[in-house]
Amino acid sequence: MPASLQEDSTTCNGSSAPHVHLTHFNFGRYLSYRIEELGVQHFFTVPGDSALFLLDTLLENDNLKMVGCCNELNTGYAADGYARASSNHIAVAIVPYVVGGLSVLNAIAGAYSEHLRVIVISGCPDSHLLSTEKQLLHHTPSKEKKDIGLHAYSEVTAAAVRVSNIETALNVLDETLLTCLRESRPVYIEVANDLVHKPCLVPGQLPAPLVLKQPPTPPADTEAATRAITESWNAAQRPVLLIGRLAHLSCSPRTIAAFAEKLGCAVFVHPEARIFPESHPQFAGCLWPTLLNIDSEKVFRESDLWVSVGGRWCDLHSLGSINLDKEGNRMIDLQHDSVRLPNGLHSNVNLELLISQLVESKLQPNDQTVHELAACKDVTEVNPGADLMAPESPVTLRSVVDGIQNLLNENDTLIADTGETWFTSQEVNLPSGCHYHAQVVYASIGWSLPASLGCQLARPDARTIVMIGDGAFQMTAQELSTIIRMKANPIIFIFNNLGYRTEIVINDGPYNYIANWNYSALARMFSNQTHCPNNNPWATDYDMVDTDSAITSMQIRTLGDLESALKKVEKEKSKPALFECCIHPDDINLGLQRLVCGHGELLLPPEGAQLSSL
Questions:
Q1: Do 591 and 291 touch, CB atoms closer than 8 A?
Q2: d(CA 383, CA 398)
Q3: Which of the ends of the chain has fewer CB neighbours closer than 10 A, N or C?
Q4: Which candidate, 307, 313, 310, 317, places its Cα nearest to that of 325?
Q5: Are the C-beta atoms of 121 and 127 separated by less than 8 Å?
Q6: Do the beta carbons of residue 89 and residue 42 sit within 8 Å?
Q7: Which of 502, 464, 488, 498 is nearest to 591 (CA)?
Q8: Confidence of residue 548 (pLDDT cuts 50, 70, 90)
Q9: Is residue 93 within a helix (H) or strand (E), and if so which, with residue range?
Q10: What three-state secondary structure class fits 421?
Q11: Which residues contact 39 (CB under 8 A, 6 or more apart)?
């Protein structure tokens, strides 16, 4: 199923139209067609009784691959990773009614905070059961709470709808999918079980292509914004450029690079927005005030104009040391649909078009801050107790960073989980073309492991390298089994420092210490021969796992162990790898040390301070 009659037609995403040999569409097939039209190749699921018929229709489509996950939360995290990494930046998760939908809700809240296009589809009971007030349904908390999923998702999606009437179902579905694309936010769709097999469309008729209609940008608005930005820029003496996470909504890395080169100034990035070439002479590093790149930060703070593209500031970005309400007089804030300057707001602006005009404008390049950056004292920050070179020396944070540095290639992806790995990962220099993902705003611990599954499936020709703490790994460890089953090949570095180290540094207490696992042995246990051979009539090549060689795993205690592990993973590139790095609890990243004051208190803003979000 799907495979196309119109080779030259394109969807709103620019992907080829699905190829179809169907003569009859039911709603389930229509949904399958739309998913493929959006460029999705995998969907993530945990099955439930109300979604089984829907899953059957999706499996009719040979161009869609099902990825069965261990639980719904991990399903959402995997979809998050897929939406970040796939070419069309769209992912699909299919879950059971209410009990599954509420389980995945936390992951979708994170996707909402990151402006990711995740389509959550929940099967739900037959239409007549939903409309019967007296009927108590399984998976619901009470007779009155049949819409609890819709209410919950209305808070963390761009649209939350239920389709139960075939007369309106196609229009509701299409408009919801377009909302997902237009808003770059998750959407939630409940599909009544009895709707799946209901015919739709005239026999032989194909669905009309999805067309995303953006309101036209008045040329005068863009031209006015261009003039205002040029005037402010040319009046500045020491300007800088800051790239934020939301730059991806409108601008490709190539567009950002062209803009930066037109400006000629020093270029900073927010910690989760590492999309500018780090070998570029204008690159100034990560801006994480008071934590990282202290000398470079001085150049930023002393600049008289901050140009921010896609920037957003939460309390973790500013740590109370930057008050945006007081800095508006020297900031140009470029977002995907607006521009805020010190003297006013320009709305109805298309950022990509605006930047293209600025690149071609009379704006004068200014490299003053690049010269100041070069004059900064070049100090390499090393954790206390620098590595000894002997193979029997204990492994350290610094040595693992060096190992990851040697592994990373162009087009690979580095993923850092929440906590100390945020700061440790910043010490890894990204090669040209290398991708980086972290979830700084929502900061959900354990997100990275299942996200690496989605990322690796979306970009199978490159490797995903994960930096995750032992506490975070315990949150979502089950999905390692799906990684093995799907024959995905990420490289997972577990930093086993015996607990929630970030929280221990902030405020120590018994709640921060967890059971210690034998992580390397556990990895090998996630794949085993079944006690009933040939029990799965639906088995594919994915299910044929050689338990003796399904995953590379090692416990790393010494530099010699680390060297052996790196050699092993280079030889065994086709399968996943997990390395348990036994880090001494006192070996703490300098950025994390700076996160706390001398009295162990988090650097929070003063009482009454306002922290705006761009």
A1: yes
A2: 7
A3: C
A4: 313
A5: no
A6: no
A7: 502
A8: low
A9: strand 90-95
A10: helix
A11: 11, 13, 15, 86, 87, 88, 90
Token look-up 């607990």 returns 499
**pLDDT tier at 92 (50, 70, 90 boundaries)?**
very high
Tell me the one-letter amino acid at 178: L
Cβ atoms within 10 Å of 269's Cβ, excluding its own: 25
What span, in angstroms and rounded, lies between the C-alpha atoms of 504 and 592?
Answer: 11
Whose structure tokens read 């099967």?
123
User: What pLDDT is attached to residue 134?
Assistant: 73
The span from the CA of 116 to the CA of 185, in Å, is: 5
Residue 214, classed as helix, strand or coil, is coil
Q: Which residues partner with 119 through β-bridges? A: 92, 187
Residue 496's beta-bridge partner residues? 582
Predicted confidence (pLDDT) at residue 94 exceeds the cutoff of 90: yes
91 touches 454 (CB < 8 A): yes
The mean pLDDT value of the chain amounts to 88
Nearest-Å Rg of the Cα atoms of the chain is: 25
Output the six-digit token pair for 209. Answer: 């292509």
Q: Is the pTM of this model over 0.85?
A: yes
Total residue length of the chain: 614
**pLDDT per position as a tens digit, 241-298:** 999 999 988 899 999 999 999 999 999 999 999 999 999 999 999 999 999 999 999 9
User: pLDDT tens digits, residue range 577-603?
Assistant: 999 999 999 999 999 998 875 333 444
d(C-alpha 315, C-alpha 317), whole Å? 5
Residue carrying the six token digits 């995903």: 464
Q: Where are the alpha helices (DSSP H) in 486-572?
A: 501-506, 519-525, 559-571
Give me the pLDDT at residue 50, please.
85
Task: Collapse the DSSP code of 337 into the 3-class scheme (helix H, G, I; strand E, B; otherwise coil) and give the result.
Answer: coil
Enter the DSSP assignment of 602: B
- Burial label for 478, CB within 10 Å (0-12, 13-18, 19+), is middle
CA 56 to chain centre: 29
Q: Please write the tens of the pLDDT for every residue from 346-373.
A: 888 889 999 999 999 989 999 999 999 9
3-class state of residue 186 by DSSP:
coil
Q: How far is CA 399 from the centre of its chain?
A: 27
The residue to which tokens 């009784």 are assigned: 49
Separation between Cα atoms, residue 65 and residue 557, nearest integer Å: 39
- Measure Cα distances from 207 to 5, 77, 165, 194 in Å: 12, 31, 18, 21
Q: How far is CA 151 from the centre of its chain?
A: 25
Question: By CB neighbour count within 10 A (0-12 exposed, 13-18 middle, 19+ buried), where does 607 fall?
Answer: exposed
Which pLDDT tens digit goes with each residue over 391-415? 999 999 999 999 999 999 999 999 9
